[in-house]
Design goal:
Blueprint: H1 10-26, H2 29-42, H3 44-51, H4 69-102, E1 110-118, E2 125-128, E3 141-144, E4 149-157, E5 162-166, E6 173-179, E7 186-193, E8 199-205, E9 215-218, E10 229-239, E11 246-253, E12 262-266
Length: about 280
């Protein structure tokens, strides 16, 4: 026996749904309440998707995306100031890293400073823009970042600046070592600035075999300098006119060019309190 197929027209479907709606409308609230919870439980995963997006997730209006010209200019200037400061810090880091790699000991306290200019009325002193706030103190040795050599000693400091006396100053003296590559020569002495472009080492016995070209180092000093650092070379050796049994040695610093633009201050782990 063949099965009957019932086909419902669009009009019949409309009447069926309309009648069902009237029936649901006339049902008691207790019954429709159960139907509501059954629907919520059945389609809860789909309903949850809509709750993940808060009401305030709408895209901001064009007015909210626009800032005033004054605020834009302020932000633009702040950005470029920060970028310039970042580039300056990067240059200081690169300079410090290069100097550290050339030293026999890794100095964690190496402060890179800009040379502001010569100290007022003093041709052999310079001012730098780093001071006590950066750990710089009187007695710290100062290097030339270009030549990795000692060029002076910090004399006075403020919070943000320091005054450096160059080794060529006639009032500056530091302990040194004179050495020669491939030889056992190691002479301890004192070097005094000649007031021009070099230094003088007096009171060295003539029995010491000092020759032009021998290397001159700043001698280690506890709390100030842990290892010898190059200053320059012996330029000339002459008998001392006042003491014929002694040598008078002239030293040519490595950095004898124009006034440096930057300086590196060696700040030891244990700061010293001596004054040069």
């Amino acid at each position: 026996m063949a099965r009957r197929h019932f086909q419902l027209s669009n009009g019949g479907l409309f009447l069926l749904l309309l009648s069902s709606g009237f029936v649901l409308l006339l049902l008691p609230r207790s019954v429709t309440h159960r139907v509501h919870f059954l629907f919520a439980e059945t389609f809860e995963p789909l309903l949850r998707i809509g709750r993940r997006f808060p009401d305030n997730a709408a895209a901001p209006s064009p007015q909210e995306q626009v800032v005033s010209l004054e605020e834009h200019n302020t932000l633009w200037k702040n950005y470029h100031n920060l970028h310039a400061r970042l580039m300056k810090l990067q240059d200081e880091y690169n300079t410090a890293a290069r100097i550290r790699s050339s030293l026999p000991r890794f100095y964690s306290g190496l402060v890179i400073a800009d040379v502001v200019g010569p100290a007022a009325g003093l041709s052999h002193e310079i001012l730098i823009n780093k001071g006590a706030a950066d750990g710089v103190h009187s007695g710290c040795y100062v290097m030339s970042p270009e030549h990795n050599s000692i060029i002076g000693v910090v004399r006075e400091t403020s919070d943000a600046m320091a005054r450096v006396r160059l080794l060529t100053d006639a009032n500056q003296s530091i302990p040194i070592r004179i050495r020669r590559d491939g030889a056992a020569l190691d002479v301890a002495a004192m070097m005094i600035g000649d007031g021009k472009r070099g230094g003088v080492v007096p009171m060295v016995e003539r029995e010491k075999d000092i020759r032009p070209g021998d290397a001159v180092y700043a001698a280690p000093r506890p709390g100030l300098l842990d290892t010898p650092v190059i200053i320059g070379n012996v330029a000339e050796v002459q008998p001392d006119e006042e003491s014929p049994l002694l040598w008078k040695i002239f030293v040519q610093p490595i950095d004898i060019g124009s006034e440096p633009e930057t300086a590196a201050v060696i700040v030891p782990d244990t700061p010293g309190t001596e004054r040069q």
